[in-house]
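so im writing up the methods section and need the dTDP-4-dehydrorhamnose reductase record in one place, dumping it here so i stop losing it
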Amino acid sequence: MTKALVVGYSGQLGHELIKVLKLDDLFKKSIEELIMTDSSMLDITCKNLVLKYILKIQPDIIINCAAYTKVDQAEDDYEKAFQVNSLGPRNLAIAAEAIGAKLIHISTDYVFDGKGVLVNGEKVPYREYDTTNPINVYGKTKLLGEEYVREFCSKYFIIRTSWLYGEKGNNFVKTIIGAAKDKGKLQVVDDQLGNPTYAGDLAERILKLALTDEYGLYHCTGKGICSWYDFAKKIIEYTEIPCEIEAVTSDNYKRKAQRPSYSCLDNMMLRSTIGDDMREWQDALYDFIKNRLML
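--- predicted struct ---
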């Protein structure tokens, strides 16, 4: 009997994972027992607690969705970000290795500096082998978490994603919808490029990988590239909220943490293993707004 543990189940991605695990017939048959924890139930920053818990429940698969994601706040609260984003994955990796479990760890596009990779004079999305160089505390702590997973666990999947949105919690889609309804006119930056990703699509790929032994580092995002401005325009178009959107530069917003201007990812490893059937970001967004989001 295959037993899966989802760490950080109450967050945006964890919510989608639980939903897929409970509703999809393939995963219901493949994973017979599901255990869910959040920070109130398991403090992943404490190695002894993690080891004790993992040794007791003996999961076959551990999926780590827990993360400190407050990018600006991390610049000041760097110790907390380090504990959750770096030590937490380390502790889970040590525990997974102790019982021979698979570990799926979720990481981020912010491990890159945003300068991009030039091919024939043009920027192309980052591939898994490209050099990382995070430019903020959040990205640095997430990268160290990746390194700890590699160092301490032999059966690992590290999955980098970007611009995530879903039904639960706060995200860009919900923020734009709320602001559009409230203000009727918005300014959104158009000089940061990335890949919007629906958490439900990511959850399905995570579970597909978890049932294989195709271990390694993955990028998994929605297909296609856009700016935050482009993303916002589509949100307004699909929701049909009367709102004017103006494109501005990042200089209009003074934030503590620097953001990468180009953090687009290429799902090369996904294509080479289970197949990259992630949807175009516009299609996923349309489906989310029309069929899954309660406006």
